[in-house]
Amino acid sequence: MKYKKCPRCELNYMTLQQKYCTVCLAEMQGKKDDFDPIAMDTCPFCEKNPLKNGEDMCAVCRHKRVKSQSFDEI
Ligand SMILES: [Zn+2]
Ligand SMILES: [Zn+2]
């Protein structure tokens, strides 16, 4: 079987039947339904709830934290 270099990355080889190498194909497919990683972060505290608009914690954890802080620091 003959191989040629991928025209996109010019790194990987692929069969003549392929348009791009498997790496590029996977990359392009992944990008199609890619979402903004910043807009879809997960809360690092509970690792459950999604974060919106660059928040550093979800509303549940923020609530908990504010509560415990007001208890401890007064
Ligand atoms: Zn490629
Ligand atoms: Zn959380």
How far do the termini sit from each other?
Answer: 75 Å
Q: How many distinct domains? A: 2
Mean pLDDT equals 81
What proportion of the residues is helical, as a percent range? 25-40%
The share of residues in extended strands comes to 5-15%
- Compressed to H and E, one letter per element, the order equals EEHH
Low-confidence stretches: none
- What form results from the Cα inertia axes? rod-shaped
Q: Treating each run of at least 4 consecutive H or I residues as one helix, how many helices?
A: 2
Structural class: mainly alpha
> Can you count the beta strands?
2
Strand order of the largest sheet: 1-2
Oligomer: single chain
Estimated radius of gyration: 23 Å
Largest sheet: 2 strands, antiparallel
**Ligand identities:** zinc ion
Q: Please, could you describe this protein's structure?
A:
- The structure is a single chain.
- This protein has 74 residues and is mostly helical.
- The chain folds into two domains: 3-32, no CATH class; 36-74, no CATH class.
- 34% of the residues lie in helices and 8% in strands.
- The chain has a two-stranded antiparallel ribbon with strand order 1-2.
- The protein is rod-shaped, with a radius of gyration of 23 Å.
- One zinc ion is lined by residues 43, 45-46, 49, 57-58, 60-61.
